[in-house]
Each structure stands twice: as structure tokens, then as C-alpha cells.
Amino acid sequence: MAQERTISGIVSDETKQPLPGVNIFNQTAKTSAATNFDGQYSIQAKKGDLLVFTFIGYDSQRQYVQDSNIINIKMRASQQTLNEVVVVGYGRSNSEYEDRSYARAEKRKEKREASKALQGKAAGIQVSNNIAYVAAPSQNFQMPRESVSISPKNEPIYIVDGVPAKANQIARINPNDIDNVSVLKDKNATSVYGSKASNGVVVISTKNELYKNLSEKELDKKLNIIPIPAQPTQEDYDAFVENAFESPKTAPLSTFSIDVDNASYTNIRRFLNNGQQVPKDAVRVEEMVNFFKYTYPQPKNEHPFSINTEVSDSPWNSNNKILKIGLQGKNIPTENLPASNLVFLIDVSGSMSDMNKLPLLKQSLKILVNELRSKDKVAIVVYAGAAGMVLPPTSGDEKKTIIDALDKLQSGGSTAGGAGIELAYKTATENFIKGGNNRVILATDGDFNVGSSSNSDMEKLIEEKRKTGVFLTCLGYGMGNYKDSKMEILADKGNGNYAYIDNIQEANRFLGKEFKGSMFAIAKDVKIQIEFNPKQVQSYRLIGYENRKLRPEDFKNDAIDAGELGSNHTVTALYEIIPTGVKSDYLIAQPDDLKYTKTETNSNNYTNELATIKFRYKKPDGEKSIEMVQTIENKSIAINKSSDDMKFSSAVAWFGLKLRDSKLIADKSSEAIVKLAKQGNSNDGEGYKAEFIRLVETSKQYN
User: E strands along 348-495, which residues?
Assistant: First the structure.
């Protein structure tokens, strides 16, 4: 079999000028690359692979890989080219370009330079997947949603026939209709269009002013653009209703399972980075809050986690309070962690062919492989039309063998995941390590079927497999047809956790830097139950955790599944409280004439207690739960004097509630959220908190 190798070269035009941004697609291996500003590229390929070179305004070139590692390509201009491109700024005067008596050679030179000017030189103008913001290849071109990368901070203003336009509209204009394109920069842009044009202006004129005086909707209609809905039609999210306020007199106990998942946050980040509106049901506030790490102290007793509470002001409802509950898992040194028995269960069906699916998935799992020790072992099971084992259990020090097996995976076939789950768990149980870390790692876009009624059958299957003592980690990939609802069911019902991998940096965070917390459980079935003191609390509500709520009687029932806590992991939960005596529009009227359920309170007792909180957990290989109890003092700190953790976690929850369009928050100001987050931004060596602040700042344009 031919060995894969690096193919490189230079792509140029007919005058031997290098072309930046040319897309190179390996049609055999389904991988791609692009040329840099010097026209250089490199791509992995084998002998016999077909490379396709494409660039707007040029005919596609096809080249089979032979013996040479160097393939230089000359692109030929197609018939569909712009008549004229005018670039204004950087030392050239407007009048210089208003004179149409150029020599033909000068015009050709400007056309050659147009690609560079329209790609990177003017901030925010990009060429991606053979699609540029300035022109589309043909009238029949269907622009995929994933093709345009919008960077709100760097995007220029677009004007077509005097009408403001968006990048996706510009990309749909037929090049044959374009008369000229002007790129205004610096003072040439701001002097005409104001400060909003600081990133440049792309001005397009069509031959017959086809789009003059059209509204945005009319422009969409004429260009045959279907607006992107708030929830992409092929993505699937479970709908839920946010927690309401409850009275401690009628609902004295609030019980829920911890949640260490953070898939919702990275998925939201993907939407915002793509300039899309976030689907309401994609927002799970607790997963947003728990994406970030907080500075809780290590446990100092026999229990595997410490308990930390804090009370402060509610930033969105000024008369209310916020109770923060933080758990800190014990940090176990890597050398002391038990041996791992891992089974990679990888979706290689046809839906996984996109670059942000199987190719990203393989690179992600390589990060995890690099964390393995000699006492660890890995098996690889794949599924598409059928399930099969591509790598039997292999020692963690045979990294090349494991990585080679990953590299050989290719996508194709249907999405029958049931057989894959069966084989993966069978492999894990046959190689079970007593006292070890036995885990199936499912990597997929969630677009799979189990039985005739997928979700219910899948839930039954994964609950049955949970009894084997094998844990489950779900890694979600891709967009467009992403099935978040299925991934969440698997993680919730399978002694598991769940992450959405939107890029290689997130893979490095979850599978590399936080490997111990993600892959090694130190406590399972962790439940929290809190009883609020009605002398101090009129009403309360749990923020988030809607899908993790339990009945009061479930707390002591060891048969009820709950969340797992990993080594050095943190879990944070927030309650909003309406104190006694405070008037609030969110209070639900409580009956005061009940005969049998009237609650009597002793005014001389518990006046200094806000609540009593209880925890239950099991050891990773245990079946009987252990209980912990702690009281919370009725003492509140002003928000400006509260801990950085309180400020930042409240800001994240606030943003999540805003994205969900919560009816229970009075203040929805992005500026106020950013201000609070900045006040709480500390211990941010990786920059995730600063990234969150940028997301809030840019989200104002889309939400």
C-alpha cells in the first residue's frame, strides 16, 4: 500500500505571480489545504491521490500524485472574472483611479493584485473553500453555511449598488454582473462611511445597478438566500423550561445531581464565532458556568471533595441574593491514578466526513493518547453500517500503533450506533480492570440510531450498560446536523460526562490539560439537597440544572443515578433567593389558609441559618452512598466585595440567562455583564475567561 507523504509546491497565475488562498482538496483522502501569501502549500497525500486546485476567477486544476513530492500548478483565468477591481488607499489617490485611461498592462496588474487586496489586506475579507466575500462562482452556486467565517471585529462594511449588504449576500452575486469592486481603507473609508468603516469598505457596482434601492429582505430574495434560522434545521436540542421560583414552605427541599459537563458552552461559542444566533435550547446555564475553573480549596478530610458556599447580591435583580455552592475534587497525582482500560468508540459514518468531524476527531484522540502510560490500554471500535474492532487492547506506550490505527480511519456508510455501543462495552468488560478506570469514549456528531425508536431504545441500552461499572465519555463534533439531545442522554444515563469539541484548542483543553478531571472519576452519583430556612427565604430557584433535578426521595435512593466528579474537577451551582420581606414581581402567591400542610416555624431557632445543605456520593467502585452535611450562615457580602469566583460565575450565568431570553431577569445589559466579568477575571492563565468577555461583547450583534 502506498505510504502517505507531504506534497508541497507553489501555485501561480499565467504571469508566474503566486496566488494566495488557493484551495487544494485531496479528493481521495477528503483533506484540504490552502496556499499562503507566497502561493506555497503543503498537503498529505499518497501516490494515486487526486488533488484539485480551485480559486475564484480561475479554472480548477486537477493533478494526480505520482513519484515527486513537489507539484507546482499554474492556474488559468476563467471566463467568469471581474471586469475591473479598484483598490483605494495606502498611498494611492482616488483621482488616480478615476482616470479610466490605464494601460491594459496596468489593468492586468491590478487584477492580479485584487486577490491579495481582497484577502487579508483588508481586514475581514477572506477566501474559504473556494468562496470569497466578493463574488460567487456561478448563479447556481449553493453557499454552505459553514463556508463563510465572519469575524465581527474584523469585518469590513459591504456596499452593493449603494445598498449596505452582508458577507453572505456579497458571496452570492454572479461575477458576470459585476462592473467593478473598490476596497476603501483607512481615511478613505472613514471619511466617507464614519468610524464603523475602520476595518475597510468593499464597494461593488453591478453593470445594470441590479440591487439599487433594495431592502435587506429584498436583497436576500433576489439573491435566493434562505435566512439561517435561530436553530439550524438539522441540529437537535431537547426543549426545557427554566426553573421557576419556589417557596420553602411548600417546596422545602431542592434536590439535583451535579453536572461536570461543559458541552453547552463550547457549542454556544461555536455559534457566536460563526456569527449565528444561539438556539435557546442549546443553552444550559450550568454547563456554561462549569466550563470555567474556580479557586476552591482542596479537601482536608477523608471526603474526595471540599464544600464551599458564598452569598452575595444578584447582579440582574438588585433586591435578590445569589447563593454559590462550589465543590473542589481532590487532586490525585498522575502517577497515583489507577490504570485505564479505554475503548474508543468512533463514528465513521458518512455524516462524519466534514473537516470539523472525523479529521478533527482523530487529531483530538491523539492528544489523549499522548497522556497514556504503559499500564494503560486502548482498544478502538468503529461503527457505520456495521461495527468492528480496528485495534485490540493495546498498551499505552505503543503510541505509534494506536495513532497509526486512528490515521487509517475513513468515513462512509450509515449511522447504526447500537452495534457499536454493544461491541465497545463488551470489549471494555472483557478487559475490565478491578479498581481501575474502565471507560468507553464515544466520539460522534450524535447522528446515529439505536433500535426502532432511537432515543428511548438508546436510553434503555445505555442504562443497562451502566451496570457493568464502565464509565462513559461523550465527545461531540461538527455542525449542521449535530444531535446534542442524543449526546446528553448518553452522558446523563451512562455514568458519563460530555464535551463538545469545536476546535483543536478545546480538544487540547479537555483531553490534554484537564485529562485527569475528564477521564478519572473520584466520586460517582454525587447528589445535592438543600433545605432553605423559611424565616430567611421567601422564595428560591436553582439556576440551570433543569435536566438534573431529582425528587426529594431520590436523594437517599442509591439506585438513582447522578453525576460523577473527576480528579481536581470543580462543580459550581447557583441559587437565586428572594429574602423574607422583599417585594418582588417574581413571587408566586402562596396559600395561607391550608389546614393540613401549614408549616410551623420556631422563631427562636435557626435565625442565623440561611439553609442546610447535604451531599451524597459513592466511591467509584462503591454501591453505598456516603452523606455530608453543612449549614450555610445567613450572611451576605456586597457583590463588589465578593470573591472573583462569585463575580465571574454570576456573570457567566447572567449571560446564559440572557441567551435563553429568561423572563426572570430584570437587567439584560451586555455592558453590565462584561463589567462584572472583568471584575471577576483572575487566575486566567489559559485566557478562557478573557475569551468569554469577548464573546459577550460581540454577541450584541446577533442576540
Answer: 377-383, 387-395, 437-444, 471-476
Q: Which residues of 605-641 are buried (b: 16+ CB within 10 A; e: fewer)?
A: ebeebbbebbbbbbebeeeebeeeeeebebebeebee
* Cα three-residue angle 113-119-123, rounded to 5 degrees: 120
Backbone angles phi, psi at 343, to 5 degrees: -125, 115
- Can you give 62-89 as a three-state secondary structure string? EEECCCCCECCEECCECCCCCCCEEEEC
Residue 282 near residue 240 (C-beta atoms within 8 A): no
Distance (Å, whole) CA 589 – CA 279: 32
For the chain, give the number of residues. Answer: 703
How much is the pLDDT for 415? 67
Burial class (CB in 10 A: 0-12, 13-18, 19+), 466: middle
Instruction: Specify the amino acid at residue 414.
Output: S
CB neighbour class for 47 (10 Å; exposed up to 12, middle 13-18, buried from 19): middle
Residue 146: per-residue pLDDT = 31
Rounded Cα gap, residues 460 and 626, in angstroms: 27
Residue 176 has pLDDT above 70, yes or no: yes
Q: What is the pTM of this model?
A: 0.67
SS3 of residue 99 by DSSP = coil
Q: What is the DSSP string of 485-499?
A: HHHHHHHHHTTEEEE
The pLDDT tens digits of the residues spanning 6-46 come to: 898 899 888 777 877 778 888 888 888 887 767 788 898 89
Asked if residue 560 lies in contact with residue 492, where contact means CB atoms within 8 angstroms, the answer is: no
Q: How many whole angstroms separate alpha carbon 297 and alpha carbon 305?
A: 9
Tell me the three state secondary structure of residue 123: coil
Could you write out the three-class secondary structure of 522-585?
EEEEEEEEEEECCCCEEEEEEECCHHHEECHHHCCCCCCCCEEEECCCEEEEEEEEEECCCCCC
**Residue 68, pLDDT above cutoff 70:** yes
How far apart, in whole angstroms, are the C-alpha atoms of residue 262 and residue 287? 4
- In this predicted model, what pLDDT tens digit does every residue of 300-342 receive, in sequence order? 999 999 999 999 999 999 999 999 999 999 999 988 999 999 9
Whole-number pLDDT of residue 591:
62
Output Rg (C-alpha) for the chain, integer angstroms: 29
Residue 369 host element (H or E): helix 358-369
Task: Dig out the grid coordinates for 379 from the structure.
Answer: 482498544
Q: How confident is the model at residue 170, as a pLDDT? A: 79
Q: Give the mean pLDDT of the chain.
A: 82
Q: How far apart are CA 258 and CA 471, in angstroms?
A: 16
User: Which grid coordinates belong to 702?
Assistant: 446577533
Query: 507566497: which residue's cell?
Result: 38
